[in-house]
Every structure is written in structure tokens, then in C-alpha cells.
Amino acid sequence: MVVVAAMIRFVGLDFATHDFTAYVRPWSEYIASHGFFLAMGDDFANYNAPYLYLLTGLTWLHTHTPLSVMTLVKTLSVVFDVVLAVYAARIVGLRWPDRRVTALAGIVVLLLPTVVLNGAFWGQCDSIYSAFTMAGLYYVLRDRLWLAMAFFGLAVSFKLQAVFVFPVLIVLLLAGRVHVRHLLVIPAVYIGLAVPAWLCGRPFTDLMLVYAKQSGQYRLLGLNAPTIYAFLHPTAADLAVFRRAGVLFAVAAVLLLAYIALIRGGTLDPARIVLTAAASSLLTPFLLPGMHERYFMQADVLAVVAAFWVPRLRLVPILVQVASFLSYVPYLQGWRQPRPVDMRLLALAMFAALVLVIRELLRGGPAVPEPGPEPADALAPKPVGNTIDG
What we know:
- This protein is mainly α.
- The protein has helices at 2-12, 18-33, 49-64, 69-95, 99-111, 113-121, 126-141, 145-158, 167-174, 180-183, 185-199, 204-208, 210-215, 239-263, 270-287, 297-309, 315-332, 343-363, and strands spanning 222-223, 291-292.
- α1 (2-12) packs across α6 and α15 runs antiparallel to α16.
């Protein structure tokens, strides 16, 4: 199955999309023509500096090897597909120590259609920040909080959409499981990763306001995403009002989710933390305006993880994957074909998945013991038979 996952990705390496030809390739050409890393002092891309550092390395490699930039960019995303799958498997391994279950979870994530399409075909980098948020969640469950916050800092440094999982940090903070000093690691990592670009001459304020500039790039309520805005079609004059109201509504809903996670069902055990992360990864992009279809990447993976933790949620990853995958199709077809399914039906599927997860939070989830000592390697083979002393 791992070989199948690799072969499918290999097929997609030559598939060029508009996003690559209109954005990533020109950025790479700019980097090559402006002194490689010295180009970090210029404002030539709308992505944050850490991704541009990686793109600079890939561009340098392209100039010294026969490999194309597109192949290198997609290979980077595929590498993080593997990291994403490994950490998803490790989270599942905290619930089911059997290495076969752990391996199955990782393989399911590797074979998720949206995970395959996002990097190997589309050339997007959503697997990078998703891998870091999954690592952060794993180390939260291991109670290694400093390391967890470092990974969350890495995640948000690559893409702002990492914050869709951050409501779980609010819950942990209010529950006393995480302290403010831990959370300060996140902005510290973000600022630290901006320093190399600043030393190259990029204004520090520009580096800190990259995401603020991104928020104004798209003014629509939704960009082919299965969200609540599939049902809303305001006039151009009312668009700004709907966007502001949508942001406020999303914030209120996230706070309500935090209340549910804290108050309902007793202690904040590992199962509740996993369910809260899954719920927030669904709820936040579902209610926020201006979402792309790709912004459900974390939800795609956490839906699988939640189903392994709570088997009665096995319908959730199916609903989420159907909604996400079918929302990818129009873009990858180049908009040459009509939508395969009405976006409102996909939004209903995503909403149904969200309701199932939140209902599980309301009922308290299963009684799951705290994880024991961290295994040396959850995916490593275990000894068979009895050991003999002496």
C-alpha cells in the first residue's frame, strides 16, 4: 500500500496547475535572478519567509541538477506527506498500541485523495504546516509542551491556516494544562524564522504583516470551499458586511466549542483533546469567509485520527473526504467541466461531519487512559514470543 501511495504521487509530478505556473515558478525565477538567498530581502511573493527559504534551496538545487523546479517543489510536499502520516499514526498509536493499527492509520492518511492531490498533483504546501500541527498535537498528548509549542510555531510560520487547530490550545490554557509561558514559544519561533529575511534587507514590519496582506487578497465569501457560504450569495455592496459578520460568528463559535470541550463530559483527557482538535479544524474553516477548498487539509487528517480514537465516528472521515475531494475537482480540471456535485451538498456533508464530532464532545467521549511512557518507535516491529532471562 505504501508502494501504491508512492506510485500515485509519481504519476502526478508532471501535472502542472495554474497556481504553480502563475506563482511558484515566477518566484523561483526571481530568486535565481536576484542572488538566491539575497532575494529574501525583497517583497516578491505573498507567502511567508520560511516557505521561501525552502523554495530558495530547491531553486539552487534546480540550477545544479537536471531536476525541474516543479518536481522538486512537489517532492518536498510528498516528503511532508510522509511526516504528516507518521505523526497521525503516532497519535493513533497512543490509543491503540498495536503496531498494525498504527501502521494502518498512517497508510490511510497517505492514501487520502486530498493528501495525494494537494502536493503531488497541485504542488501546494498544505502538508507542511499540517505535518507540524500534527506533531504539535502529538507532543501535547505526550505532555512535552515546549516541543509541542515549537512545532505549532513552525506550523503558523508556514501558513496562517495552522491556527484552525489552535482552539485546542485555548482549551488547554483555560484548563491549566498549558501556561502562557508555553504559548510564548509560538510567536518566538515565528519571529526567529523571520530574522534571516530581515538580515537580507526585508523590512521587519513587512515580515510581521504578511498574513494581514494575504487576508485582503480575496474578497469573496468562499473560493470553491464546502462551507456555510455555499448557501449565501449577497450582492457586491453587502459583501464586506457579510465578511465581517462571518469572522465574528466564527470567533463566537470557536469560543462556544472551547466551552463545550471544557465543561461537558468531565476531565480533559487525551480523547477529548483529539476530538477538540478535530472539531476546531472543521468548524473554523467552515464558518470563516474567504476559505479555499485546500484549507480543510488538517480536518481531512484529523477526521481519520478522530475515527481511530473513537470508532463510532468512522462516518466522519468519509463525509469530510467526499466533501473535500469533490471540491478539489473543479480546479484540477481547469474549470473546463461543470461541478460534479452542487457545492451546497458538499457543505452539508462537511456540516454533518462537524455535528457528529461535536455530539461526541457533548457526550464526553470514551474513557481513555492517559498515554504511558513514550514508545521508542510506534511503527517498529515488536518482539514475538517470550523472552528468557539468564
